[in-house]
Each structure stands twice: as structure tokens, then as C-alpha cells.
Amino acid sequence: MDEVKVVVAHSERATLRVGDVFLKIDADQTNIDVEVEAMALAPVPTPEILWRKPPVLALGAVRGMALGVLGEPSPASPAAWAAAGAAIRKLHDAPLPPWPGKNLDDITAHLDSECDWLISSGTLPADLVKRNREVAEAALRPWTPVFIHGDLQITHIFVQDDKVTGIIDWSEASQGDALFDLATLTLGHEECLPDLLAGYGTDVDLDVIRGWWSLRSLGASRWLVEHGFDPNSPGCEFDVLRARM
Fold first, then answer.
1. pLDDT in tens, 121-170
2. Could you tell me which residues come within 8 angstroms of residue 43 by beta carbon, excluding any fewer than 6 positions away?
3. SS in 3 state form for the chain?
4. Model confidence over 183-211: pLDDT tens digits?
5. Does the pLDDT at position 19 exceed 90?
6. How many alpha carbons fall within 13 Å on the CB side of residue 200?
7. What is the chain's alpha carbon radius of gyration, rounded to the nearest angstrom?
């Protein structure tokens, strides 16, 4: 009998691994609907959908290893990072998905609310929050929407022999800012950004990338704390914020 391993679990969703099968359990079936449709539309390698029986989606395991994990040096080669950049560019050049993403006003309002909480709760020093809010302003500008993954964490791209074998966890895919995906992938791994951009193949505004690093870290910290994760772990969100000082 295959061993059951918990990949991630919190109050909103859980992912289990049973042998070579991943079982994603989500009480909000809208997330699963988006994931299934996004994988069908995305012109990049994605996991095989084995079956779906709400609230469970069964996916086949992806070959290779993740580009890395937050808080540790990436074990992937520069060529693997470049391959990831090329895959992301292919996604961003694809036709837009039919559903919209978050708008600028909502992103700004959420950011300001989270900054207020970080200060009022004493979670972070006010000067650290205010400095990163200033840095985040660079990301808060109009953009031309592209097909984005929306949660392109370093653990979500798998590579083998310097080739992308799969991109996982598509429940936040939408229309959005291309630089948000690039920033999310390199959060806490700034040293890998040049290799990623070498594969992506176009000039980007590094101030906007830095803005998204600050914005994502500010915006995610309360959720992480409230769901049992530690953004103060070495190399994680709080360190990303401190680096902007």
C-alpha cells in the first residue's frame, strides 16, 4: 500500500501524495475549475489530470525536481533557470484566458490594509513596512495583461536535464502583469533573476520586479502567520522585506 504524504495543508485546502498521484482537496470548487481550465489552455508542460471527483482533483506526478524552495539556495543550474524563463515567456505570449484577474484598485487596497495590520499588530516595525510600501509603489502601475500563472512560486516549476518538465498549481491563473510571475518565482532568490531573464528574452523594469517582491511579501505575511507558516524563517518574506532597507 502506498504511503500517504501531506504536501501542504491548511484550513482552505490540502494536497496529499499517494505514490505517484497527487490529490488536491479544495472546498471551493471554483479554484479547481480554474486550475483544470488553465492547464488545458497553457502552452507549457502541466501535470496529467487523472480524474476529478469533487472536492478532489487527482493529478499525476511531474518528473524531475522543483527549481528550489524558499529559504534555501536553488539547486538548479543557470540553464534550468533560463529554461524556466523561456517557458514563462511562452505562457505570457499565449492567448489570454477568458476570465479576468485582480485589478489595480483592489491590489492597492489590499496592500494598504495589510500594511496597516502589520504595523498595528506589531508584527513588523513601522519603518520597515513603510519603506517596502514605497518600493511596492513601482508595481502599482497600469500593465498590458498577459496569461499569468498567478502563484509561480519556486516550488511550482519542475525541471530535469535543464528542461522544464511541468508547472503545477494553476488555481490562481488569470489575466495579469507578466512581471508579477517573474517576481514571484525569484522571491528570495534574487541571484537567479539574470538567468531567468536570459531565457525570458526581453528587457524588464527591475524596479517593478523589486516592487512586486515587496508587495507580495507585505500582502502575504498576515495570511502566512494566520495559517501556521513562518514568514520570518531565513530567506523568506521578512528577509525579503529587510533586504529593501
1. 999 999 999 999 999 999 999 999 999 999 999 999 999 999 999 999 99
2. 90, 91, 94
3. CCCEEEEEECCCEEEEEECCEEEEEECCHHHHHHHHHHHHHCCCCCCCEEEEECCEEEEECCCCEECCCCCCCCCCCHHHHHHHHHHHHHHHCCCCCCCCCCCHHHHHHHHHHHHHHHHHCCCCCHHHHHHHHHHHHHHCCCCCCEEECCCCCHHHEEEECCEEEEECCCCCCEEECHHHHHHHHCCCCHHHHHHHHHHHCCCCCHHHHHHHHHHHHHHHHHHHHHCCCCCCCCCCHHHHHHHCC
4. 999 999 999 999 999 999 988 999 999 99
5. no
6. 19
7. 18
Look at residue 2 in the predicted model and tell me its pLDDT: 63
Between the alpha carbon of residue 197 and those of residues 122, 139, 200, the distances in Å are 37, 18, 5
Residue type, 12: E
Q: Regarding beta strands 21-26 and 65-66, do their DSSP bridges make them parallel or antiparallel, or are they unpaired?
A: unpaired
Q: What is the 3-state secondary structure (H, E, C) of 145-170?
A: CEEECCCCCHHHEEEECCEEEEECCC
What would the mean pLDDT of 160-183 be, rounded to a whole number? Answer: 97
Q: Please give the Cα distance from 46 to 108 (Å, whole number).
A: 31
